[in-house]
Amino acid sequence: MHGLERRTAAALLAALALGACGGGGDGGSKGSDNEYPASARTNFMNACVAQPGAKRSACQCAFDRIQSRLTFAEFKSADAAVRRGEQMKGKARSVFADAVKACMSS
Q1: Does 12 reside within a domain?
Q2: Using alpha carbons only, what angle is made at residue 25 by residues 21 and 27, rounded to the nearest 5 degrees?
Q3: Which domain holds residue 94?
Q4: How far apart are CA 3 and CA 32, in angstroms?
């Protein structure tokens, strides 16, 4: 992994671990498995852009890619694993890695 890619990956993992799913309430009703509550987007973006070297456009790109490929249940499971200090499971790990690769130049 190159420096920028590593920093972007770190920012995305930090966004997940620092409260992507946290916050009060569900932020609104969900219409489908891939429609995340508004609070998940807000928390992810706030945590992601707070990381050194992170760009809002890269964080938004990553969130959109993740949301399009993981159900909210899968996203919450990945969040829980990271919070426990564990690695994400196969699909989630692959989706996050793809998001980093695709969005690092955004």
Answers
A1: yes
A2: 75
A3: 3-21+37-103
A4: 36
